[in-house]
């Protein structure tokens, strides 16, 4: 009888401990909290920082998300942090327009957060900082936004290691990226849907090959110093809805073959060195889904007509 009571007592104790442990909060790993605090301390806060979205034309709320990060609280509760509900690993970091100012070092503690799936550092001031090759170590990353943050230098080829990337934003209100567009950024990221490298100082030809079966929906290379021809491999981007090649130095004839892209809605070719007659090669079914076309400030001859290209909702001519 005593043995039975002992067994029940042990079982009761075990169940109580199990219930107690399940009721305790699951905190984020200590090493990740420490890495985040070290990252915070690398920067000062600029309360005068102003964020303005040039695309939407609206102000972005600016406030210092990292100010209230401290070791006395669970880092999963910190502003801008999102953790996996089961493992409590940090998987999202959103510091968009957080008034951060300072040098972004290549050995930043941020790179210790190996489980990140989403990283947004846009609209901060990292003037003089290079884009570290270590960004390529975030093997689970699906969204990367480094735009409007005054990064400079070349785009590291290691970015191509982010094989799960869906959205890559390296655009610029204030980035100063130079060099050519690395072929591997496009060719090795099979899930990439949005590529924005606009308003930088990228030069050379667009020698990237857009492979058959890619999932690009947005390609924005506006405002660089790109030369040469419009790459014919763009015809493989069958899901493309927006293509902006404006404000470059492309030297080519009118790429009427882009009219075969069924989902293309916005096409900007403005302010290049494009030239020659505008013609549809006899196919009146080109550009059927196009809503906005801007081919102004080029050397084209002729006009876009409904007979040749269908009807456009909005059209900017020569």
TrEMBL record:
Residues 1-21 form the signal peptide. It is found in: Membrane. Residues 30-47, 69-84 form the Leucine-rich repeat-containing N-terminal plant-type domain. It is a single-pass type I membrane protein. Keywords: Glycoprotein, Leucine-rich repeat, Membrane, Repeat, Signal, Transmembrane, Transmembrane helix. GO terms for cellular component: membrane. Its main location: membrane. Pfam families: LRR_1, LRRNT_2. GO terms for biological process: defense response to fungus. PANTHER family: LEUCINE-RICH REPEAT RECEPTOR PROTEIN KINASE EMS1-LIKE-RELATED, LEUCINE-RICH REPEAT-CONTAINING N-TERMINAL PLANT-TYPE DOMAIN-CONTAINING PROTEIN. This is Leucine-rich repeat-containing N-terminal plant-type domain-containing protein. It comes from Solanum lycopersicum (Tomato).
